[in-house]
Amino acid sequence: MRRFLVALLAPLAALVGCDAGISQLKPGVSTATEVRSVMGNPTFEWKAPDGSTTWEFARGPEGVVTYMVDLGPDHVMRAIRQVLTEEYFAKIRPGMRQDEIRKLIGRPGQTMPFPNLQEEVWSWRFEQSHGNPWFFNVHFAPDGAVKRTSQQKIESLNP
After folding, report:
1. Residues 125 and 64: beta-carbon distance below 8 Å
2. 63: CB partners within 8 A, 6+ apart
3. N or C, fewer C-beta in 10 Å, the chain?
4. pLDDT score recorded for residue 75
C-alpha cells in the first residue's frame, strides 16, 4: 500500500517541487541559468529579433499554472508571469491565431477535435481560487482562428 501511495503522489510532489523556488527568482537579477536551475527546462521558447527570449513553463496537463519568463538579450530575467488567469484569458479575441494563443497562455493540457462542429478545442486546467479547478477552452475554426472561448467547472464533468 505504501508503494502505491508513493507512486500515486510522486507526480504531484514533482509538480509542486518544480515551482517551490520561484520566489527566489528576481527580475533584473536572476540569470537564465538560475531560472533553469529552479524551473527546469522550458516547454517552449520564443526568440525576438532584439535577442530577448520568452520561455514557457507549462505545468499541464494536470497542473494549473503556466509560467512565462522573459529574458533580456543579456540573459537576465526581466519578468515572470503566471498566465492561466482571467486577466490573460480576457485578452483572447475571435480571429486570433493558434500561435498567438500559444504565446499568450502556453501549451494546452489537451486538444480535442469536434468534426461535427467544425472546430478544435484546446483546454487548460486552472484555478479560479485555491482548490477550485476549472477548464478554460479555446474553440478554433478549421482555419485555426479563434471562434470563441468557454469555461467549465471540473466537478461538472463527473456526474
Report:
1. yes
2. 15, 109, 125
3. C
4. 98
Q: Last residue of some domain: 82, 108, 129?
A: 82
Strands across the sheet containing 132-140: 110-114, 119-129, 132-140, 146-153
70 shares its domain with 102: no
C-alpha to C-alpha distance for 132 and 8, rounded to whole angstroms: 21
HEC assignment per residue over 133-151: EEEEEEEECCCCEEEEEEE
Q: How many Å is the maximal CA-CA distance in the chain?
A: 54
CATH number of the structural domain spanning residue 25: 3.30.1450
Q: What percent of the chain has pLDDT over 90?
A: 78
* pTM given for the model: 0.83
Q: Residue 39 contacts by C-beta under 8 Å, 6 or more apart in sequence?
A: 18, 19, 21, 22, 25, 57, 67, 69
CA distance 159 to 146: 29
Domain boundary among 82, 104, 126: 82
**Residue-wise pLDDT tens digits, 107-154:** 999 999 999 999 999 999 999 988 899 999 999 999 999 999 999 998
